[in-house]
Structures are given as C-alpha cells and as structure tokens.
Amino acid sequence: MDATQWDERYRASAGGVWAAEPPAAVRQIAASLTPGTAIDVATGDGRTAAWLAARGWTCTGVDFSAEALALAAARPGGDAVTWAHADVHAWEPAAPADLVVSCYLHLPDSAAAVARIAEWVATGGTLVVIGHDVDNIAAGGHGPSDPAILYTPALLRGALDDRFRIVRCEQVVRESDDAELRGGHAAASIDTLLHAVRVR
Asked: In terms of CATH architecture, what is 3-198?
C-alpha cells in the first residue's frame, strides 16, 4: 500500500486502526531500558511513540501517512512527541537514537529497510523490530497475506551486521487485541521479534 492508500484507511478508521498500546513484547523490552531518545518507525496512529513519551522518552514518530500523523498528534500525549511526515526510505534523523522501534513495517525490501533503520541506533542503543511472520498466513492470523513482505527470524537476523548483538530473534505468538475474529474467537497471530543492541 502506498501513502495515499494508507491515508484513506486511516481517514475511514474513526479514530484508530489497531490497539491502543504497543505490542506486549515492545512494552516489555522498553520498560527494561533507561529512557533517552527514541524513534518510532512507521508510527501509524502513534500508539508506540505516545506510550514511550509517557514513560520519559524523547520520541520522534515517523510515518508517510499524513492522516495517520493527524490521528497520532490528536491522541492523548501526542503533543509530547515530535511527528515527522516522511518515507522511511528517505528520512534521516538529526542524531542516532538510544532506541529505534519498528512495529509492523512490511515492505517489498524489508531486509534493506531494517538494515537502514538499524543505522539510526546509537552505540549502546537498542533496536526492536516486530512484524507479521510468514507462518502467520497458515495460522490464520490477522495481517498481510503476501509472503514476500512478511518476516522470518532469518530475514531479520540477516539484516544486521556484526555491529549488533542479537538478544532475541524469534517467532512470538500474539493474541489478537483488535476486532478480528475467527470462528467467534480472537485470532492468535504469529509475529517475528528482533531485539538487538548496537555494540559499536
């Protein structure tokens, strides 16, 4: 989907598309860190950026959808975040950040995109990437159905070089917290989680 399509989706969402908070794995990792500077890549409606800002992080949320950023800025705590209307392929931060988070950014060149945003992590800083795993299709979880844009642990691990120490890179199961139902029950989704620290 391009920016125009995402604008249309957010415009029709009546206040939000997904959950009110970041994924549980992201909350768990970020809560263990000392707040500093953070970048939320493909911030969407700003749930992760606002959550981080409320916990003391100086956060920038980046997204190419103007409609998403309008929702993000209007959410509680949105005024505590710096919002950047830009494409991940072209945007550059003013300085490396202590934490770079990417939630559900799926592109045809996902490995290259992850490698690019990894460059924004300061030495000693943390990179967290979470997105739909390719096995999510067979599991029937909510999310994209094109395997070419989905993650695997091998794909995310391979996007990093030896400047990073990988803490975790694995599949995680996430219970759906949105309105998507399968047979009357909330659908479990399979994600890939990458947690890495830049060592040099």
From this structure: 3-Layer(aba) Sandwich (3.40)
